[in-house]
Specification:
There is one protein chain. The chain is an alpha+beta fold. The chain has one domain: SCP2 sterol-binding domain (Nonspecific Lipid-transfer Protein, Chain A, 2-Layer Sandwich), CATH 3.30.1050.10. It has six helices and five strands; from the N terminus they run ααββββααβαα. Strand 1 and strand 2 form a beta hairpin. Helix 1 packs across helix 6.
């Protein structure tokens, strides 16, 4: 999870998703998804270049330095497990404090809640192993 090979598969899944194409048709803000570990400090980040129902690129970047990334969402390994298992909606996770919106504004994400759910569904279709909570 959250490695470049995983990001490559995620890109393919997003672009194969009719749900994302429909609900993300007006989304044109790059987003970074970060996975944090219990040891602190270290994170894994995947930056998605989302543009009008397509994902132009998905890149594993650590550290995250892209100033043009409008939204950065961080969760622990356990948090991402809950999200990808369908037990937590990403927007609700931010509102409840279980996910951290590191950069951006929740009001910018709310109109794309269904697109965010389609991104989660795309990620959940990838057969991958989570790293241990304390980090790789």
């Amino acid at each position: 999870m959250f490695t470049q090979p995983w990001a490559d598969l995620f890109l393919s899944e997003i672009n194969a998703s009719g749900e994302y194409r429909t609900h993300g048709a007006h989304w044109d803000t790059p987003i970074a998804l970060e996975m944090s570990f219990t040891t602190g400090g270290a994170v894994r980040a995947v930056v998605l270049d989302l543009h009008r129902g397509n994902c132009r690129s998905a890149a594993c970047r650590v550290p995250l330095t892209a100033d043009n990334v409008g939204l950065v969402i961080r969760a622990s390994v356990a948090g991402w497990k809950r999200i990808l298992a369908g037990r937590m909606d990403p927007v609700w996770g931010i509102m409840s404090g279980q996910l951290q919106l590191v950069r951006g504004n929740l009001t910018d994400l709310i109109p794309y809640a269904r697109a965010a759910k389609a991104l989660v569904d795309s990620a959940a279709r990838i057969d991958a192993t989570f790293p241990p909570p304390e980090g790789p």
